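Hey all, sorry for the wall of text incoming. These are the two entities for the joint prediction.
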Amino acid sequence: MPSPRENIIQLKSVRRTYMMGKETVAALDGIDLDIKEGEFVAIMGPSGSGKSTLANVIGGLDRANSGYVEVDRQELGKLNDRELSEYRNRKIGFVFQSFNLISNYTTLENVMLPLIIAGMPSRMRKDKAYGYLKAVGLESRTDHKPTQLSGGERQRVSIARALANDPKIIIADEPTGNLDSKKSSEIIAILKGLNRQGKITLIVITHDPNVAREADRTLKMNDGVITR
Amino acid sequence: MKTKDYVILGFRNLWRRKSRSFLTIFAVVIGALSIIIMLSLVIGAKNVATKQLESIDGLTLVSVSANSEMESSGNLLSTDSGDGDSEMIINDSDIVKLKNIQNVVDATPLIGIWVKSVKLQGQEKRYRANILAYDTGSQVLKINPDVGRSLKKGDMDKVVIGIGLVKSLGYTENPEDLIGKNLVLYVEGGYTDWEADPPKPPEGDNKDYWENLQKPREITAEIIGIVSNGPDESQNYITLDWARKLMTQKEWKWDDEKRKQMEQTRNSIEQQVSREWESKKQQLYAGIKNDASDEERKEVEQNYRNEMETEIQKRMTTMGYNQTNFLTLIKHDMLSERGYGSILVRVDSTENVEKVGEEIKKLGYGSQTAKQMLDEIEKIFNLVGLIIGTIGGIVLFVASLGIINTMVMATYERTREIGVMRACGATRKDIRNLFVFEAGIIGFMGGLIGLGVSYGLAKIGNTIGNQIALSEGIPINNLISFPLWLIVSVIGITTIVGILAGLFPAIRASHLDPVEALRSE
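and here's what came out:
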């Protein structure tokens, strides 16, 4: 284990509720959580237990109704839309179960998306995106459209996209959910490599015990609370 | 995000739905077209009118006609004196009267010479042409040819031609080559004083003779100058002096007075001869035998009559009587009989034009100033422009509904994509701008294509319009014009319409919840 590390993520009594008709449903019902920098955390639990909501709140896609969320010394509750968007752009990389690549863009363009949003000059962002595609072993597929790629390749593209802006944290919501076991272990190997060599904090939501086994720590969730 | 990236992404996103984008743009094109046609018509008409007036210093001109009720014709050089109701004719005494009005510098009659057609000597093709005669010595119309010389007082069979005819004749590239060439004018009807006398009519009714008289005849005129900056491209000019000759018609008339006189002379000679020949007659009749037949008697009588007729003719010839002497050549000076078509008056300054115009009206003439003419033209074209402009506005409004529809559909189709962009760090503003730019591009492209199409239409329209104007003698050339501000404002208007139409869908898209958006199918 590396030397003692700081908490990069701190959650205190975080609640996130939704209105379902007239009823209030708590997706997160008082979450207290600390995650250290460079840690690999797996989150498991049945569907509807609040895993994705927790990931989205940490990633700045969603906001907590109450409680305290601090990531990399920024209190997310105090950020406005522009600041929160910038936070997602600079510090977070998302990897989704369904890849969420833009079908009209080429592989390279998909990877460039966060860089376009960041306003990086065209030459620079091309080089950078190419570098990350190379890192996931897809440098020969830069001009392909997502539909021309296999599932595993698509997920590697979306990992390259998540990496494009050199984030501190990667949040992967069931990244292997749509892949067979061979492709799954490839993806997990890539993510773990980023965590180990790149010192990127990794949060993976998964149903797969094999994936969870790779993590430093596994959280179990049920009904909006962390049970273990 | 950078502005450049909004534009690039906007174009690419429109390209994804080519046919839908094209149809949406097409509606904008139609709207842009109507607005362009409206504006260019209004501008064009003003341009033409002012150009015409500037070229002849027209703002100090007043056109005078005999008919005080005359409607504005929109053409200062009109020689149309209105419908023939007017009893009044205008002639030289009127010119003197007009010249005496205070602030009037000079006045010239304007006479439109009617010719059936013209051609260049040696060529076959004939063209329509307007020929205008004016007093070259007056200070009113200054027709300054840019090639050749101008008309001088007393110039006969000389013509200064307008650039319109030069174009028709096909000498646009080298107009100077036309100088010295002869223009053949085809006239028909009465013989003019410029031509040789018409042949004398034979005795009795002779249809062929009268038909021959109606055939078109050639009159040649030397081209001495070409004017391109005149008031009217289609107008050609000759001197008043020659016009007077051309407007004087000649015809043979039987002289009834002379004929009556001859009848009387003949009667008296006949009486005289029969008196002198009384004894001769007696002798002749006495010589007839008693048993002579009726035929023999008649023959004697006939011989006597023949002899007497020969004698009468002999005596009349010695007195100078001759059959053809009964024909006299009559000349009709049409200018004196019918008066001038109109008179053009030059006023000393623009401030006095209106006053002089009123003064002329008080004298019982019809008058039209350049300003009135401009107002007339503007009124007509502004009305036409207003109608087309209203239609354009409606079309553009409908087009904007099309843009809204297209953009709303785009936001629905791309909800998930919006979620992805938000996850990658796009702000609400980024999303809004992305769609606003896309809608703006639809408007911009519509304006641009509209301009391109209307530029092509204008080229065709001007070519056809010029030809019609030339053949009909309407003083209009290149009616449709495209100043820079028109181009800029049309593209500006359609782009703004696009942006405004895109605003609602764009704001809607920017307020989508990213989590919801990512979950959508």
